[in-house]
Amino acid sequence: MTSSDPSEAQAVALAEAIAHAVDGTHFRIAVAESLTSGLLSVRLGAAPNSSTWFAGGVVAYMTETKHRVLEVGAGPVVSARAAEEMATGVAKLLGANLSISVTGVGGPDKQDGQEVGTIFIGIHSPRGELHVAERQLGGSPEEIVDSAVVAALRLLEARVHALVQPSARSH
Length: 171
What we know:
By secondary structure, the chain is of the alpha/beta class. Helices cover 44% and strands 19% of the residues. The protein is globular and about 45 Å long.
């Protein structure tokens, strides 16, 4: 990946937007990653003032790690349910009130009956609300990972803005 990589530039810009939106708020963000192998955490950790709002991340690549560390139940780990449980598990583990998870299939073969490029992104919000998005991405395994990071950051940015705006209006 080079600095001229458009997905990298998008990811950096999205992470910076998230950082600015949560700066000075009560939000503590955590990440649970499988497919993205820590790249989502890298982007958030490099954003401005991340030490004040980024609680950390867990890379749970192996299925057994998802079960043991993040308390994902038995069954397919490339699924909406697993994304929800990963987001909830990492929030609990790291004491965060907002968390995001990414699980999916980068290739070269299907997994859990899902096609290559299928990803699930889970978001656990402060009052326990869960949101899951499914995306179908294309390209090489590296391109799928990069696109998954951008997709996750887009969803997190939208969720942060939806949560921050109402509280900003009440002041």
